[in-house]
Amino acid sequence: MTANALSPLILVDGSSYLFRAYHVPYLQALSTSDGQPTGAITGVLNMIKALKKDYPNGNIVVVFDAKGKTFRNDLYPEYKANRPPMPDDLRSQIAPLHNIIEAMGLPLLVIEGVEADDVIGTYAKQANELGIETVISTGDKDMAQLVTPHVRLINTMTDTEMDEAGVEEKFGIKPDQIIDYLTLMGDKVDNIPGVEKCGPKTAVKWLKEYGTLEGVIENSDKVKGKIGENLRSALEQLPLSYELATIKTDCELPYDVSELGPKQADTDTLLELYTKFELRRLLAELKAANGETTEADEEITPAKIDTHYETILDEATLDTWLTQLSDAGTFAFDTETTSLDYMKAELVGVSFCCEAGKAAYVPVAHDYVGAPSQLSRELVLEKLKPLLASDTLVKVGQNLKYDANVLAKYNVAITGPVLDTMIESYCYNSVATRHNMDALAEKYLDHKTIHFEDIAGKGAKQLTFNQIELEKAAPYAAEDADITLRLHQALYPKLEKESQLLSVFKEIEMPLMPVLARMEQGGVLIDDHLLTEQSHQIGARLAQLEMEAHDIAGRAFNLASPKQLQEILFDELKIPVIKKTPKGAPSTAEEVLEELALDYPLPKLILEHRGLSKLKSTYTDKLPLMIAPSTGHVHTSYNQAVTVTGRLSSTDPNLQNIPIRSEEGRKIRQAFIAPQDHKVVAIDYSQIELRIMAHLSDDAGLLTAFKEGRDIHQATAAEIFNVALDDVTSNQRRSAKAINFGLIYGMSAFGLSKQIGVGRNEAQAYMDKYFERYPGVLTYMEDTRQKANEKGYVETLFGRRLYLPEIKSRNGMRKKAAERAAINAPMQGTAADIIKKAMLAVDAWIVEQNDPRIKMTMQVHDELVFEIHQDIVEETTAKIVDIMNQAAELKVPLIAEAGIGMNWDEAH
DNA sequence: GCGCGACCATA
DNA sequence: GTATGGTCGCGCC
């Protein structure tokens, strides 16, 4: 066995992974047909497979605990005495796993008298001394003590790496303080005594203060309170704990680190073992690697495809290609342009592909020095136009809305059958990956694409596509089309297997794309003079506030810097700290300043300053700059594949967070206006998420309240506080409203109590009362949690799916967070589905009217905004309200409410 | 020039 | 307590 000095040493803590894999729910289900469990085997082997992929040159060594006692039991008979014996269904998996690992040719170490940690520690130390890069693959945080500049940890199950900086970040201390840290805390599971009530926080605090365990011990009489007593009474046993927590780095081992290295895999034995234990995927992969064909398995790496990419510079070749595209019936298509901003972008070339691996790029506007002569943009578009508008040809693209927006400037439309791979991926699984092409190619095709930065550079010196040499541009562009087609071939069949997902894709998302494109191209009219005027006023007030603040502070400082503000408030003015940020610095967040403002003058100034400068920098300064010179309008981008719940998002500018709550903020909405003789019409769904909750939960009380058209918060208040509807006070209504919202967010009593400013018990009492009055809601919440836990996903009314991988987390906080998301997603997502359906119906009606006096301009989650000519505004609004009310058939009425005005503020 | 945390705008 | 996007300061390279 020899090691290549250049390859990193990968030390695998097999025992740690074995135990963890054993407890993974979906692995627990695995067994052979005669009942031999194989989940833990599968888990560990998958993990080794992942390591092989991540470290192709890695020298993998697998270490397991041996049976029997270790030197730690001699030191301390109670060590791990609390551990239950290993379950039989885990024990029975160990020998087969060892056999498989050996057959794979990997060095396997099982050393008696020490633990796997100690073997790893010994090799890590040897490797470190030889300067060999070492990666320890483990799920055990104790190993952090082994980290050095040459040694780092990777947790393959959570895919997180930790080097020295990572240790400091995670623990707040350096690797060489980890043993001290573990000593102070002790370990309940392993039965190592520590300081009673000393957890991670306290341990880190002490070590920061006194540097080392020795320092802590020397200064133990300085620690006050109960915890100080605990520390002093633990002093005697700390040296023992230290010894137990220390991973041994001088074990006697059969091989030196330099002697470790892989052997030839024993394929025959592997085949036999995989067959015996019915490890079908591994078997299939092994056979595939040996050149045998196997039954199709979607997760198997697709065969590498030979690629032939062509650059088209003459008309005859273009014609031949276009004929091929037509004959193929389905083709992928992509544009290359000068900008990501569709309003500024100019077309530089187009690429297409109708057979995996065969693609072409047609440059039309590369203008670097020495660029060859190219076909004209006009000619190429003229020839392509009928294909893109064909009613029969299927056009496949990645984020086609962008291409459609760019081509619209050249009067070329993409219509007829259109499929978008970004949306396919999004509908298939909104959380598995980002939906950009590079990520999709890697996930679904196991292919690393050429990145734009690879050919264009990055930063200020980044080239635009027209400046890139054809030799580099063509493979990139052609690959885009090729990969798009292959992604479609990979993703569409997956959607077809899930009729619900396919229907969301075909009935909602794809039809919505041209609707969004029209809204984006149409844009929204902004009164830039009004905004500029507001900027000036705000600027003057900010200057005044700044002067006053500097006066009080006694020196100049940046009011916008939380760090400087924190110095002024808490260090210099000695104002008491109320709350800290997650990283431990005193918080200067709004709620804190609000509270301080009651007693001190400066926080109040800061609050006003913050609010105003936010408005100025984000809105009044920026929006006028975003008006497109060519249209005089502001053109946002709606992203259709960002949110996990099915909502749209809006960027450049974000039109979905224009202020409304504060007085000053509302003024910005006054700048959202309509053209001459037109009105702004805003129509929003009233309480849509609560209505959906009523529908999904089928709760009789809630259904009645909505059917009878009651004020839902008032009705809720009457039920919770046991008073007549008319006797509900505004305070009671406010609490009920907070509860109603909280339910949608999957709240806890703790969250509710914070929101409405009552004790936790009182909040719990309100919730109990609520669930007593609306038992259907309680059942629904419980069912949703259960479904999320069982299936790993939840669904909207229309079958949109949201996976919740964290629902299986053993980390309580994460699991709880996933459960809250599970509660919220069906309601938020169904609301998103409904307004999307409404947009489709409204747009269809507007297109049918063929009247330029009606335009849909914005979507803000539960609201649609239009500009409509004043002559027809009343009846048109009534018609649209009607369409929106009919967008879905729920057990309660959908109510859309309209406002009409000269600007967006007035329209509310 | 970039990435990240804190903060804050919306539904 | 859910879901987003934008700006700022600041430390880093």
Automatic annotation (TrEMBL):
Gene: polA
Gene3D superfamilies: 3.30.70.370, 5' to 3' exonuclease, C-terminal subdomain, 5'-nuclease, Ribonuclease H-like superfamily/Ribonuclease H, Taq DNA Polymerase, Chain T, domain 4
E.C. code: 2.7.7.7
Keyword rRNA-binding recorded: no
Free-text function comment from the UniProt entry: In addition to polymerase activity, this DNA polymerase exhibits 3'-5' and 5'-3' exonuclease activity.
GO MF, one annotated term: DNA-directed DNA polymerase activity
Domain (3'-5' exonuclease): residue spans on this chain: 309-496
The DNA-directed DNA polymerase family A palm domain, residue ranges: 665-872
Assembly notes: Single-chain monomer with multiple functions.
Organism for this UniProt entry: Thalassotalea agarivorans (Thalassomonas agarivorans)
Classification via SMART domains: 35EXOc, 53EXOc, HhH2, POLAc
Pfam families in alphabetical order: 5_3_exonuc, 5_3_exonuc_N, DNA_pol_A, DNA_pol_A_exo1
Database matches in InterPro entries: 3'-5'_exonuclease_dom, 5-3_exonucl_a-hlix_arch_N, 5-3_exonuclease, 5-3_exonuclease_C_sf, DNA-dir_DNA_pol_A_CS, DNA-dir_DNA_pol_A_palm_dom, DNA/RNA_pol_sf, DNA_polI_H3TH
PANTHER family linked to this entry: DNA POLYMERASE I, DNA POLYMERASE NU
Main enzyme class: transferase
Protein's recorded name: DNA polymerase I
Keyword DNA repair applies: yes
Keywords on record: DNA damage, DNA repair, DNA replication, DNA-binding, DNA-directed DNA polymerase, Endonuclease, Exonuclease, Hydrolase, Nuclease, Nucleotidyltransferase, Potassium, Transferase
Catalytic activity: DNA(n) + a 2'-deoxyribonucleoside 5'-triphosphate = DNA(n+1) + diphosphate
GO biological process per UniProt: DNA-templated DNA replication; double-strand break repair
PROSITE patterns: DNA_POLYMERASE_A (PS00447)
Residues of the 5'-3' exonuclease domain: 7-263
Family indicated by similarity: Belongs to the DNA polymerase type-A family.
